Amino acid sequence: MSTDTTASVSTHILDTSIGRPAEAVTVSLAARSGGDAQYVTLGGSATDADGRCKDLPALPEGTTHVRLVFDTESYFTAKKQAEAQQDAPRVRDSGAFFPEVAIAFAVTPGEHYHVPLLLNPFGYSVYRGS
């Protein structure tokens, strides 16, 4: 829950190659105060069956920038192994072209930022959701 002095962040991931939420993707959250400051990792989470991270760490007061890092390589490696076990058609050559997706964005105190990731093995898109 955000207050007037902090921002809050949420995210979810949709795997557009299968048209479903991306489950069990590790997400790391880092923050910094000021454009010249170093990012400090606050912690992380993993997406649930609905592709959502419901327990990302709270942002400290004074946060001006946030970085989310999604471990896409582990997700696609696990998907590839599951497909091989099911004799499913091969839709991926080698896991993920992007082994991770790092999204950095500016925040304003008191605002909530929902940042969905639309993901496939060879590309991604993000936007500020609601």
UniProtKB/TrEMBL annotation:
Keywords assigned by UniProt, alphabetized: Hydrolase, Purine metabolism
Transthyretin/hydroxyisourate hydrolase domain sequence ranges: 9-129
GO molecular function annotations of the record: hydroxyisourate hydrolase activity
Coiled coil: none
KW Hydrolase (keyword) present: yes
EC number per UniProt: 3.5.2.17
Gene3D superfamilies registered for this protein in UniProt: Transthyretin/hydroxyisourate hydrolase domain
Catalytic reactions on record: 5-hydroxyisourate + H2O = 5-hydroxy-2-oxo-4-ureido-2,5-dihydro-1H-imidazole-5-carboxylate + H(+)
The keyword Metal-binding appears for this protein: no
CDD domains reported in the protein's UniProt record: TLP_HIUase
Enzyme class at the top of the EC tree: hydrolase
TM annotation in the entry: none
Source taxon at top rank: Bacteria
Subunit structure and binding partners: Homotetramer.
Family note: Belongs to the transthyretin family. 5-hydroxyisourate hydrolase subfamily.
Primary role: Catalyzes the hydrolysis of 5-hydroxyisourate (HIU) to 2-oxo-4-hydroxy-4-carboxy-5-ureidoimidazoline (OHCU).
The protein, known as: 5-hydroxyisourate hydrolase
Lineage: Bacteria, Bacillati, Actinomycetota, Actinomycetes, Kitasatosporales
Gene designation per UniProt: uraH
